[in-house]
Each structure stands twice: as structure tokens, then as C-alpha cells.
Amino acid sequence: MSDKRIVILNHQQIQQKLDRIAYQILEDNFDEPEIVIAGIMPRGNFLAARLKKILDKIAPFKNHLINIELDKFSTSLHAQADVEIVACSNKVVILVDDVLNSGKTLAYGFGVFRDIPLKKLRTVVLVDRNHKNFPIATDYSGIALSTILKEHIEVVLSEDGGEDVAYLR
């Protein structure tokens, strides 16, 4: 893998993508009294918090933020959330991650909610790489890229201590 990094989204573009996604979420859930935005750690939760902040300004419904930590390398679902998942019962859940690669992380994210009734479950990713091994489709994405398998997407956010940017390596 090359050390050469190509900027695919800069700070302003990331903000524009998140603004657009927030408006799409609003349009899709306008009649809901509340929604749950579930961010998959480590960067999905940062993006989820940003979406919540935007929705707090533009949406008539209440937004609740939860953080989900998954063991992405396990062969079975091992997850923890910072609230009881049953609190999401009969609500709309928006599952957020930074990059969709194989689909395994989002598939595990779906599994977190498998035992409770939901109104609907939607997915958000900043970058969709189009290399799915699992039958996962995103409902809202910032950008979709067709990359080769050996290329990598690196998302750096200010919460990580850097400047907002997404690289192709």
C-alpha cells in the first residue's frame, strides 16, 4: 500500500455532506416524535454527534444519541452501548459509521437492535467504498467511491485531534 494520500473530502466538504444528510434524515422522519442516532465507535459516534447537533437546530423531533462499541474482528457479535438498547424500542434508529467497506461493521450494528421492535432502522456512512461482502446498503452516504481492494479510506476528524479530512491511500 502506498503512503501517498489523496484528499477525497476536506473539512468544508465533510460539513456539507453532514448538512445534506441531516436534511435527508429530517425529510424521512418529519412526523416522528423522536429518533435515536446510534454512532459506531470510534468515528461513527463523532459523526452521529455532529448529525444530532445539526438536527437539534432544524428538526421538530427529539434526538437521542447513543454510542455503540463493537468488536469488529470477532466472528460473532460482541457489542456494548452507553444506554440500554431497549430504550430504542418502537423508535426510528439511525446507525452511523464513517466508512462502509465490507459491510461487516454495519451488519454487527444491525445485530445490536435485533431483539427489540423498531419503527425503522436507517444507515449513514460518510464514505461508501462499494466493496461489500455483506448485503448491506446505506440509506444516506456522503460520497460513494469505487476503489480497488488494496486502497484504503482514512477518515480523520477534529475529535481525533486532527483536521477534518478523508483520504484515499
UniProtKB/TrEMBL annotation:
SUPFAM superfamilies: PRTase-like. Transmembrane segments: none annotated. The keyword Glycosyltransferase applies. Residues 8-144 form the Phosphoribosyltransferase domain. One of its GO terms (molecular function) is glycosyltransferase activity. InterPro entries: PRTase-like, PRTase_dom, PyrR_bifunctional. Keywords: Glycosyltransferase, Transferase. It holds the Pfam family Pribosyltran. PANTHER family: BIFUNCTIONAL PROTEIN PYRR. This is Pyrimidine operon attenuation protein/uracil phosphoribosyltransferase. It comes from Mucilaginibacter yixingensis.
